[in-house]
Amino acid sequence: MRLQKYLASCGIASRRKCEELILEGKVSVNGQIIQTLGTQVEEDDEVYYNHKRVQLEEKHVYYMLNKPAGYVTTVQDEKQRATVLDLMKGVKTRIFPVGRLDYNTSGLLLLTSDGALTYGLTHPKHHVNKTYEVKLSGKVTERSLDMLRKGVMIDHRKTYPAEVEVVKQNAKHTWLKITIHEGRNRQIRKMCEAVGYPVVQLKRLSVGSIQLGSLKVGEYRALKKEEVDYLKSIAIIEEV
């Protein structure tokens, strides 16, 4: 097994983050610091991260959080802001977020100790529908709605077509339900700004068939077995 996958499977962090930790010289195998990504480890190898031995966890945990606005989606923040892990006080296992939600975005966030699954779900090749509830400033025109549905240019690249539904509208605001399957940085906000409508509020409602449902803001729950099985079925997990 590759070292970065081993670390992720031990619950240290996502596989991408584990690759960074290796390159930073924070990981050793059998007493030797490793700073290359091609290293293979065997079951009886002694692997250390930050001078502490790490070993495979037999059982992973999987959670859904209704993230409030005002929290960063990271394990630790250099600016000392509140993180989503501050809301997971009852969880004793080391966990990390699956992907990100912006600081000011609320809604469904998955967290797990399963680094392989996290990598599979956040892989650039991975496309899964994510649905958001969006409150925009202004009364959105049909032309702008059509542009969102067909794709708009953000960061010098056109977005894939999106599903866009008008939930309600008045003279000052428009509420939309938008479904995308890309995972680009601040994508919904940038899409709406590209057609001239700033986002006032943004909330993620679902990831694939996993629904936020009636989970209250700031609360979390363990995923059901069928939900975990579904996520594993759609993830791109490389057995290397």
Structural notes for this entry:
This protein is α+β, with helices and mostly antiparallel strands and about 240 residues long. About 20% of the residues lie in helices and about 30% in strands. The protein is built from six helices and 15 strands. The chain has helices spanning about 5-10, 15-25, 115-120, 140-150, 185-195, 225-235, and strands at about 25-30, 30-35, 45-50, 50-55, 60-65, 95, 105-110, 130-135, 155, 155-160, 165-170, 175-180, 200-205, 210, 220. Strands 5, 6, 7, 8, 11, 12, 13, 14 and 15 form a nine-stranded mixed β-sheet that branches. A four-stranded antiparallel β-sheet has the order 2-1-3-4, with no helix packed on it. The mean pLDDT is about 90.
In short:
With 240 residues, the chain is α+β, with helices and mostly antiparallel strands. Helix content is 21%, strand content 28%.
Query: Fraction of residues in helices?
Result: 10-25%
% residues in beta strands: 25-35%
Low-confidence stretches: none
Distance between the termini: 6 Å
Strands, total number: 15
Whole-number mean pLDDT: 91
Anisotropy-based shape:
elongated
